[in-house]
Every structure is written in C-alpha cells, then in structure tokens.
Write a structure and sequence with these properties.
Radius of gyration: 23 Å
Largest sheet: 11 strands, mixed
Mean pLDDT: 90
Strand content: 25-35%
Structural class: alpha+beta
Number of helices: 7
Order of helices and strands: HHEHEEEEEEEEEEEEEHHEEHHE
Distance between the termini: 65 Å
Length: 366
C-alpha cells in the first residue's frame, strides 16, 4: 500500500483490527464461560411399544475424560435444532446437550427386539493424526432381546467402531455358532443392583471413541451388589432412563454421578424421513447408502452420518447411522439386525427353544 493511501485509511484499519480483536475475545470468553444456548431439539416421540422400551431400558456406564468430558455426554441428534449432520462439530460449542437414547422395538410371537442408538456430536481425541481417529458425529448401536414367555433378557448385541460383540447367559438357549459369544450379560434391577431377574442390561461406553461393550466385558466398570459402581479410569457417568419426576438436561458434573436420559423413538421420528428419502444425502443427516433387501423390505440404507470436517483418508462421513446394525459392517447384510433380527440371529448363533420369525405389526413398511 502506498504511504499516502496508508495514512488515509490508517484510522479505518485500526478500527477494523480492533473490531476483529473484540470479536475474538468475545467468542473466547463465551466459550470459556459455558454460556450455551438452550437445547433446540424437538420433543421425544413414543411408539406403540414404548412401555417395553421403558421396562428394559439399559443402564449405560459411560467413561468420560476429565479434561474434555463434555464431549462424552450423550446427546439428542437435533440438539442444534436441525437434522443436518455437517454442522454438528461447530454447533457442539453453542448448544446444550439433552441426554437421549433412541430406540426401536420389534415384536414376534416369542420375543421383543429392542434396538438402541447413542449419539455424540464428536468422536474426539486430545490430538489427531488425521487417520479418521476423530470425526464429526459419532453414532453407535446395541440391541437387547427379550423372551416373552418369562420376560427375560436373553441376548445383548453391541457395536464398537464397525465391529460387534454378542453376549448371552448360560441356560438361556443361546450358544456360539458362526459368531462366537463374547461373554455374559450383566442384568440390573430398577435400582441398578445386579439381579439374575433384572430387566435392565448394562453396557459400558468408552470415552472419546464411544464404542459400546457389555458391562462384564473387561474391568472398565465394576458394579457392586448394592448398585454402587466405579470406573477403572476413575471418571465416568451412569446414564439411566428418566423417572417421571426427573428433568433431563446436560449434567454440570461430567466425571461422576447418575444422569437421567430420555427415550426417543427412531421408528416414529427417523424412519418416516428415511422411508421418504428426506434423511440421506449431502447436507442432510445421514449418508453413504447401500442397498439392504430381504423378504420384508428393500431400502437404501445409510451407513454413516453426513459430515464435512476433514478426518482422514477414508472420508468425512464416519459416525455409524442408527440403522446400520449387523454382525459385520459389510453389505448386503448390513441393516439385518435392525430390520429383521428374528431371522438374522439364528443364521449366526445356535438357538434352542421357541423362536418365532413372524413379526407382529411390523412397522417398517414402504
């Protein structure tokens, strides 16, 4: 810039620099103050078998990182007021999170199949080497199977980073087949105490990457006979279904304690949008579709959440979608455990006793 022009515009330049500085300081102060906007998500919706989801709602022992643990808080997908995936990394710093567990219940003559989905706006680490070790949006799934004749939880399937584990207790008629069992199920009563007749399966969720495992799979969490618990790394929260008099909101303590969550129906909230083609594609919530087809349904199945934050050579879209459930993450069976679990389990496991494959009021119709 020529000297005379610099002198002419010098006051304006000073004002511009000052304005940028003030905006930067204000943004930093806002972020540090914790003055987040209220959660902007829609109210939860209940489906026909909501009472079954309530009765068998899981206890979720979630490890947290004490240096960045807000990123380990369960959230509703639309915490920022939209069903768009590629703005969630940024909006995480603006909005409060409402702990939410998404569910869908299928019923046959002999069993209930309860699919659960956990969402975090970020899969994160203290640093990244950009090999998809962190990414925008983090979804993981698990499923609980209940035998109707004695109202007993007989099977737990969990998902962690595109891999899965399956658990069953001795005497419940489920053994290893093509897929091996990975251990037993920790069952809890309504107060969180271990009980052989408990209706709540317990799962462990890791910090940062948020993979899900059976609570007895390792020493990450120990639940005592009285229901008290301790995390191996010291920091963690128990998320359990909210009781009628409890308010669900983001906890202020992210290193210990018990936090209630809301149940929200995937069948009622997300499935109609997926069915009608409004949920998948660039700029929407989910992406990376493959075709899933069986005798009940043919659907373009989204594998991931849509994202636009660079995370590594495998692409931006990495978080697992609520519909991508199976023993592997490969087509053409990806989605089978969500849409047709009654057929899929006997293909992979040895199951004795009554096991119907006929669904009652199957909800996923085109």
């Amino acid at each position: 810039m020529k000297p005379h022009l610099y002198q002419r515009y010098r006051p304006l330049l000073k004002l511009a620099i000052l304005a940028v500085f003030v905006l930067f300081i204000s943004a930093a102060s806002f972020a540090q103050s914790g003055q987040l906007l209220s959660n902007a998500g829609a109210a939860p919706i209940q489906e026909r078998l909501h009472h079954i989801a309530e009765r068998y709602a899981p206890f979720i022992y979630h490890a947290t990182d004490d240096e960045g643990g807000r990123q380990d808080i369960l959230s509703n997908i639309d915490f920022d007021g939209d069903l768009v995936g590629n703005n969630n990394w940024e909006n995480f710093d603006r909005y409060k999170l409402n702990p939410t567990v998404y569910y869908a219940v299928l019923e046959t003559e002999t069993h209930y199949f309860l699919s659960f989905h956990l969402f975090h706006p970020r899969d994160w680490n203290h640093f990244t080497i950009y090999l998809n070790d962190t990414h925008e949006n983090d979804g993981e799934n698990f499923q609980v199977v209940v035998r109707k004749s004695d109202e007993r939880v007989v099977l737990l399937w969990t998902q962690a980073h595109y891999l899965s584990d399956v658990y069953a207790n001795p005497g419940d008629g489920i053994k290893s087949g093509k897929t091996s069992l990975d251990g037993e199920i920790l069952l809890l009563d309504d107060n969180g105490a271990p009980s052989d007749s408990g209706t709540h399966a317990a799962v462990f969720v890791e910090a940062q990457g948020h993979g899900i495992y059976g609570a007895l799979d390792g020493d990450d969490v120990v639940v005592q006979p009285d229901g008290s618990f301790m995390f191996d790394d010291g920091s963690g929260i128990l998320f359990r279904a909210a009781r009628s008099d409890e308010i669900v909101e983001e906890p202020s303590n992210i290193t210990s304690g018990t936090v209630p969550y809301k149940l929200d129906s995937m069948t009622m909230k997300l499935w109609p949008l997926l069915r009608d083609g409004q949920l998948t594609g660039d700029g929407k919530l989910l992406d990376g579709t493959v075709t899933y087809s069986d005798e009940l349904i043919t659907i373009d199945l989204p594998r991931y959440y849509d994202a636009n934050r660079f995370s590594g050579p495998f692409g931006h879209d990495r978080g697992i979608s609520p519909f991508a459930l199976d023993f592997s993450f490969s087509k053409p069976t990806l989605g089978a455990l969500f849409f047709n679990p009654a057929k899929r389990y006997p293909e992979q496991l040895k199951i004795t006793g009554e096991w119907s494959t006929q669904f009652i009021q199957y909800p996923f119709t085109r």
